[in-house]
Amino acid sequence: xxxxxxxxxxxxxxPTWDALPPGVKDFLVDVVGTLMNIGILAGVAVLIAGLIVxxxxxxxxxPGVGSVGVKIAVVSICVAIGSAGANAAIGFxxxxxxxxxx
Length: 102
Known about the structure:
Oligomer: single chain
Keywords: Membrane, Transmembrane, Transmembrane helix
Helix content: over 70%
Transmembrane segments: 38-60, 72-94
C-alpha cells in the first residue's frame, strides 16, 4: 500500500520556515555551521593525539597501546570527513527527496 505511488503523484508537501520567528533560520544555520567547524577541528586534534599514542606504542614495543592509537586515528578521520562532508550529504539527500515524488 505505501510503496505503490504513481509516477504523477504530487503529495503537495513543501518545507517552510513560516512558523518560526524572524531571524531564527539564520541563527540555526549559524549554529549548525559552528558545530561543523568544531567537529572538524576536534577531529584533527584527536587525530594528532591518536598518532602520538600510536607512535608511543610502536616505539615502546607495546602493541596494545599502538592498536588503541590506530583506532583513535581512524575514528577521528571518520569524524573529520563526516563533519566536512555534512553539507554536501544534506544537499544530496535533499535533492533525492524531490525526485522520489516526481
